[in-house]
Structure formats: C-alpha cells, structure tokens
Amino acid sequence: MAGGAIAGGRRLLLPRLQALASCRRGLSLAADASKEVRPEAGVPQMPAFDYTPQPYDGPKADEILAKRKKFLNPALFLYYKKHLNIVEGKMQYLFDESGRRYLDAFAGIVTVSVGHGHPTVVDAVVKQTKLLQHTTTIYLHHAIANYAEALAQRMPGNLKVVYFVNSGSEANDMAMMMARLYTGTFDIVSLRNAYHGMSPSTMGLTAHSTWKYNVAQGFGVHHVMNPDPYRGPFGADGKLYANDLANLIESATPGRIAGFFHETIQGVGGAVELAPGYLPAAYDIVRKAGGLCIADEVQTGFGRTGSNFWGFQNQGVTPDIVTLAKGIGNGLPLAAVVTTPEIAQVLAQRLHFNTYGGNPVCSAAGHAVLEVLEKEKRQAHCATVGDHLLHRLRALQDKHDIIGNVRGRGLMLGVELVKDRTTKAPAKEETLLLFEQLKDLGVLVGKGGLHGNVFRIKPPMCFSMEDADFLVDAMDHVMSKL
C-alpha cells in the first residue's frame, strides 16, 4: 500500500513539476546562466545578466494583436511570423510576456542609445515630470536652454543655434525650408538609397520605393548616384561619384541649388558607409553652387560610430545644418536642427512655433543622455566593441558564402546577404529565414537595404563584448544550417 501511495504521489507530482518547468522556460534569471533554456546541444547561450524582469499579468500577444488589427492603421507593420509581445526592457535586453530575454541588437530602430531604462535618464524624466510636465517656448524654462547649450558645445565650428522638434522627419523638413530661405533657391539634392523621413517633403528626399507613396512629394528634389563601395560602379572612389553630383547641378538645375542632404552611413539603406573622400568633394561642389550642406545625423550621431561623436566628422567635413533625432532622447520624442546663427536668422522673418519641441521632460532626457555618454565613455566603448564585432563578422564572412559584405563602423554595422558573391544577387528569402531563426535564439536584429537583404546591427551603446560574441555565434549557428 505504501509503495502504491508513493507511486501515485509521483504520478500526481510529475505533471506539476512539468508545468512549473514549462512556466519557467525562457525566464531570464540571468545571474545563473544554467537557468537559461538550452533548446539543443551546441546552441549559443546568451551572456549572463543580473536582472529579473517584473511579473507580467497584462494582455497576451493574441489579444493585443486583435486590438491592433481593429484600432491601429494597417500600415504599421510587425516583425516576425510569431509576433513578439515586448513588455519590459533593461539596458541592451528586452523581455517578452513570458519573461524570456532577448538581446536587442536594433535598439528600437537605432533609438535607444544608452540603454533601456537607464537609471540616469529615468531619474531625470521623473524629476522633471514632477516639477513641470509641459510648457512651451513662449515662456522661459531652464531645461530647454541648458540642453541647447550642452548640445551646441558638442558641435564643431559655428554650429551653435538649436531648434527642437519631435522627429527626424520634422527636423529634415525644417532643414529643407531653412536652406531654401537662406539661399533664395529651390533645388535640393539627396542620394539614391537615402532615407530622410515620411512627410510629403522628406519622402521626396528619400530614394527607396518601399517608402514612397503615389502622392505629390519633394518638389525640386533630385537624386544622385549613391557612393556605395560594395554595389556602386566606382567602388570606393568617392571623387568619381561626386562627378555625378556636379553633372546633375549643371544639367538639371539652374546652376545653383539650395542644399545637399546626406547620411554618413545610410541607416534604412542597409548601413552603407559613403565612399571615402566623397563628402569633401561633394561639399566643395555644393558650396560652389551656392548650396548648404546638410548632414542627417538621425542614426549616426552621439558617438555611435565610435571614431567620432558625429558621423560627418569621419570624413573631415563640417556641415551648415545638422539634423538629429532617434538616439538624442533614448526613446523619447525629441529631435533637433542645429545650424549657424546666420542661417538660423532666416526663420525670424515670420513667426514659427512647435508646440512640443523642447518640451521640458524631453529636454531633461536629452541632457541626461549627454551626461551618460560622457560619464560612461560610450563613444570609446562603441569603437572598442564595434571593432571587435566587425572583426568577428568578417571572419564569419570568410566561413559563409552567403555573406557578401560586412560594413560600417562602431555600433552601426550591416551584413549583406547574397545568393552569389559574383552577381551579388540579394538573398531575400534566406535573409527572412535567418531573421526568424535568430529571433528564436533570442537575438533581435534589424533588416534593411533596398532589397531587404541586410541585417542592421545597431544595438544600444551599452552592448558588451560578450553580447557581440553571442550575436556572431548565433549567426554562425543559423547560417551553418542553411
């Protein structure tokens, strides 16, 4: 009888233990790496992380998806076949509804600069929110003035006047208008493969069919050859690409232009770093044609490239206008246009106003980001970790023929996948498959490029050496199965 009772007890206990194990599967009790799930032998394991997410008792993914389909515009796309319900973030990691941890190698589309829930930024936001949540620029407030000063101090040359807005599209819109007002001319030039926003004006600057609607857009905008060292006809010779800019100004404009827009490393375009020597040559051509040089630093700014605080400094140029967004506020709606006092003066011809631009809470967050970047030496960190990651990715390229190109600098890198290295035919289907498999291993990367065949690796700037190794090991693991 006793033996039967024990056996019966075991039969009752076993399902409970199995249920408990199932509930804990994927939980990130990362201080003890042995508690991380090992789906199969030889699978790369995420680095330990001493943090336990809060229990989540909110709506599940299916319920949220149903509401999203009913109440949100269908243009808002989702990543992955099985959609992730992300409920918490801490530094370079995200957690889903079950508590499973993911390595965030895309930073909320290159927006979370110093880390999810960074305590310095959170404290600044909470403190300012308790004091004053919102006022506008019609009153004096120290947060916007102090932050503008701190931002201007980090700009080279005479780039000392700031206008705050809420998004990269708004910033680039304003830069276009200022260039046209200042020069008295209308034509604007940007690069093919560029992305500068989704407003009617900035959609015109953008040269990606994926992001362009059949509506009036970008009057007076021209696109020139992209100085892409991998796919461009002139390889890495930046000066030869600049000839196309000179020819366009001569043939397709009155001979004078208002401005020239560029990213230094194209973000949505797939982490394409402009060919060396291109920007000095292009700036010279543009200025001889009376135009202003406008650097879109929405993704490359704030030390992300490692070698310099601003992306344009990597080619030794100083623009006339700089636009900033994304990482400027670590996820809060904040953006800026920075220019010279002379150019800034053109807006004073009329009244100009932005209700939320420079909001006290957002300004406090932006100022805190600058403090963290300096205190934690994040630019140097991006250089060190980025160099290591780039070296390991290039070693991976030697191993897997599907990798056609590895590029970028700092923590703004791209891995382009191709079917054949000679023809460079984009490996679209393979990219989608690997993208899903990386997620299953707990790695979240971005996807971009004209053909959607580039992994965009742009994590929060607290991304560690161990994170970099795990990312590459995970890529190696899934590519080895192709």
Automatic annotation (TrEMBL):
<comment type="similarity">
    <text>Belongs to the class-III pyridoxal-phosphate-dependent aminotransferase family.</text>
</comment>
<dbReference type="GO" id="GO:0008453">
    <property type="term" value="F:alanine-glyoxylate transaminase activity"/>
</dbReference>
<dbReference type="GO" id="GO:0019481">
    <property type="term" value="P:L-alanine catabolic process, by transamination"/>
</dbReference>
<keyword id="KW-0032">Aminotransferase</keyword>
<dbReference type="GO" id="GO:0005739">
    <property type="term" value="C:mitochondrion"/>
</dbReference>
<protein>
    <recommendedName>
        <fullName>alanine--glyoxylate transaminase</fullName>
        <ecNumber>2.6.1.44</ecNumber>
    </recommendedName>
</protein>
<keyword id="KW-0808">Transferase</keyword>
<keyword id="KW-0496">Mitochondrion</keyword>
<dbReference type="GO" id="GO:0009436">
    <property type="term" value="P:glyoxylate catabolic process"/>
</dbReference>
<dbReference type="InterPro" id="IPR005814">
    <property type="entry name" value="Aminotrans_3"/>
</dbReference>
<dbReference type="InterPro" id="IPR015422">
    <property type="entry name" value="PyrdxlP-dep_Trfase_small"/>
</dbReference>
<dbReference type="InterPro" id="IPR049704">
    <property type="entry name" value="Aminotrans_3_PPA_site"/>
</dbReference>
<comment type="subunit">
    <text>Homotetramer.</text>
</comment>
<dbReference type="GO" id="GO:0030170">
    <property type="term" value="F:pyridoxal phosphate binding"/>
</dbReference>
<dbReference type="InterPro" id="IPR015421">
    <property type="entry name" value="PyrdxlP-dep_Trfase_major"/>
</dbReference>
<dbReference type="InterPro" id="IPR015424">
    <property type="entry name" value="PyrdxlP-dep_Trfase"/>
</dbReference>
<keyword id="KW-0663">Pyridoxal phosphate</keyword>
<dbReference type="Pfam" id="PF00202">
    <property type="entry name" value="Aminotran_3"/>
</dbReference>
<keyword id="KW-0809">Transit peptide</keyword>
